[in-house]
């Protein structure tokens, strides 16, 4: 009987270890790679020096999306505007957050963004919520996706463990990330004005 108990205990501990390991990686699971949302090929060449200390949160101030298909289209719309209209090498943000609760890879962890001006782009990751959050809040699943992305960044070594989170309006003269989203991120643990 004790042999069966020992085997059961060992199996249970092994399963718990696998579950804990999976939980550590799950924070990165909601990132939709560029190829899955049919992004244009990036022409960006400037790299970030990782880990970075700052994360800048903005909103696109455009249309919202609440399903994978509509968010993929909205990510393409933002990229098209940045590349075709503004002449940038790619979508300006490192990541975009959809109201579907998924994160859409923009320039990713390694490439310098074009989201917060010359003083900040080279030392930060830019995360933009797709939509306008002046008068409404993003759904909880979108907020959770952003928080999971931040945990993923720390786990991957792309963000310093003591990173500082800022609203776009903290670093540039803008209304972004919108009054409602700005109020929310001010309560997040790493927020610094």
Description:
Helix content is 39%, strand content 16%. With 193 residues, it is an alpha/beta fold. Strand 3 (95-97) and strand 4 form a beta hairpin. The longest helix has 25 residues, at 2-26. The radius of gyration is 19 Å and the shape is globular.
Summarize the structure.
The protein has 193 residues and is α/β, with parallel strands linked by helices.
Distance between the termini: 61 Å
Shape from CA axes? globular
Q: What Rg, in angstroms, do the CA atoms define?
A: 19 Å
Q: Which sequence of SSEs, written as H and E, runs from N to C? A: HEEHEEHEHEHH
Q: In total, how many beta strands?
A: 6
Number of helices: 6
Q: Would you spell out the secondary-structure blueprint of this structure?
A:
Blueprint: H1 2-26, E1 31-32, E2 52-59, H2 68-85, E3 95-97, E4 103-105, H3 118-121, E5 124-129, H4 140-156, E6 159-167, H5 168-171, H6 179-185
List keywords for this structure.
alpha/beta, 6-stranded mixed beta sheet, 6 helices, 6 strands, globular
């Amino acid at each position: 009987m004790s042999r069966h108990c020992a085997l059961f205990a060992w199996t249970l501990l092994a399963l718990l270890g696998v579950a804990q390991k999976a939980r550590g990686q799950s924070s990165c699971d909601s990132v939709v790679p560029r190829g899955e949302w049919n992004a244009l090929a990036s022409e960006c060449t400037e790299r970030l020096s990782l880990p970075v200390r700052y994360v800048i949160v903005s909103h696109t101030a455009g249309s919202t999306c609440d399903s994978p298909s509509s968010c993929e289209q909205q990510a393409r719309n933002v990229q098209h505007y940045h590349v075709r209209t503004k002449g940038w090498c790619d979508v300006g943000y490192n990541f975009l957050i959809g109201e579907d609760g998924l994160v859409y890879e923009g320039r990713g962890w390694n490439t310098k963004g074009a989201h917060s001006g010359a003083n900040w782009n080279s030392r930060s990751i830019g995360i933009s919520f797709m939509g306008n959050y002046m008068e409404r809040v993003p759904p909880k699943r979108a907020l959770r996706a952003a928080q999971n992305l931040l945990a993923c960044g720390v786990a991957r070594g792309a963000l310093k463990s003591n990173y500082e989170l800022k609203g776009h309006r903290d670093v540039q003269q803008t209304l972004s990330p919108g009054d409602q989203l700005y109020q929310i991120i001010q309560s997040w643990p790493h927020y610094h004005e």
